[in-house]
Amino acid sequence: MADQKQQEVINPWGVKSWTYLSSLRQQSPLIQCITNFVSMDIMANTLLAAGASPAMVHSILEIPDFTPHIQSVLINVGTLTPDWLPAMKAAASVANQLGKPWVLDPAAVGASSFRLKACLELIELKPTVIRGNGSEIITLSMASIGSTKGADSLHESSDAIESAKSLAKSSGSIVAISGSVDFVTDGERVVGAHNGVPMMQKITASGCSVTALIAAFVAIDPTHAFEATASAFSVFGLAGDIGMELAKGPASLRMHLIDSLHRLDQDTVLDRVTITSFS
């Protein structure tokens, strides 16, 4: 008990992050991922490496039977089509009815009016967490499309903090911004997760994957989604830090990131997780 108190004084966020990760490994929650074709493989492997159980179930015909059994839902609009949107809304509605968390990833939301309208309609279904890059969060906050570079951000994560706070207040969701520093806000509090390396941005769907990990952490403790989201950001970034020590480029970093996530131990998490308050 004395050792735990000492650890909390030294790195309270490290303690929280390890609690989420170790609980995830013990409980192996079922995470339903309605996501884009690009991200399915790495997202599933990220969840498996962390200890969760992924299910890429997106047919609206399966939602009534399957979704009631999940612990959280992830909705990612990266390769959105009109055929998929009803299933996304149905899964979010089931999660809400059953008091289970769901997470929205508004990938490339500024690319088209169709995509923006779909995301705004999904936000009306009260996601527990919204995770995007700086440009995506600014677009959602303004509810209008502008200059875009697909799923890539034209803004630093710090540029979107005020937009994220506004979006959190209007939506009731925790809002998370990916970037060189990953920010999380509930509209009042703001924290930044500093783990991670720039080359992670060269791995396709790395952002999608961290959203999946957020969904898994939030499944462990839905009542503390703010803390779960920040911890997921830092744990994923820490796996990238360690993976980069062995990687020669984006392809090998992808492999070593997943391996490092699987192998993270208590001492490493307590020592190296870095989350600071900005509010």
TrEMBL record:
One GO MF term: ATP binding
GO biological process, one term: thiamine salvage
Keyword Kinase: yes
Entry EC no(s): 2.7.1.50
Cofactors, names only: Mg(2+)
Gene3D superfamilies, sorted: 3.40.1190.20
Catalytic reaction annotation: 5-(2-hydroxyethyl)-4-methylthiazole + ATP = 4-methyl-5-(2-phosphooxyethyl)-thiazole + ADP + H(+)
Pathway: Cofactor biosynthesis; thiamine diphosphate biosynthesis; 4-methyl-5-(2-phosphoethyl)-thiazole from 5-(2-hydroxyethyl)-4-methylthiazole: step 1/1
Annotated keywords: ATP-binding, Kinase, Magnesium, Metal-binding, Nucleotide-binding, Thiamine biosynthesis, Transferase
Pfam families, per database record: HK
HAMAP family: Thz_kinase
Similarity field: Belongs to the Thz kinase family.
Known function: Thiazole kinase involved in thiamine salvage pathway.
Protein name according to UniProt: Hydroxyethylthiazole kinase
Originating organism: Lactuca virosa
